[in-house]
Amino acid sequence: MKKVLSLLLFLPFLTSALAGNTITVKSGETSVFSFSEEATITFDYSKAEIEGKGVSLEDYFDEKGYKKAAQWERAKEFSHKEFIKRYNKKSPGLKLVEESKSAKYNVDIQIRAINFGNTLKSLLPVGLHTEGGAVLYGRIIVKDKNGTELCILKFSNVQGLGSTGIEARMMFVYQQLSSDLLKFLKKSKSSQSLDEDDDE
After folding, report:
1. Which residue(s) pair with 135 in the sheet?
2. What CATH number did the domain enclosing 105 receive?
3. 0.85 cut: is pTM over it?
4. Region 9-36: what's the mean pLDDT?
């Protein structure tokens, strides 16, 4: 019984390790994230579609009605603040702010596709807790104050934990995106340091 329990507890970590990279560089340099500067952050859903349905996010909530749309607005506000807080807590460089007149950069998170998750699957036992979680696909675009693109990252299949409420599912998936981004940047910095050592 203890062996089975240990295996169930280990599965989430194994799944995460085998998942592969969820973030890749599309263009530019990730070094901008190491600057000790402020960056305003925006979240853009204008190009977002519901994964597998080919329906825009706007049309989806038009069909669902105002109550679901209101839930979605609350979910966005809460999850965006959670992303900013978790990123800033561990970021060694760039700090994200919602508003700033002195910020030199802008980080725009563009959601291209979203899956809100399946609330029935979210009730599965420990070890399968990502079942039912929301999934995000999109871009992270960093620009300077003149609007010049400095770095574009692509993220795909970023999945959060399952939960019965959309607010919680969105919070979990943005927590995962923050975690994936920080891990990716740390790995990129280590790779750059190794490259510099090889050049000496």
Report:
1. 115, 159
2. 3.40.50
3. no
4. 71
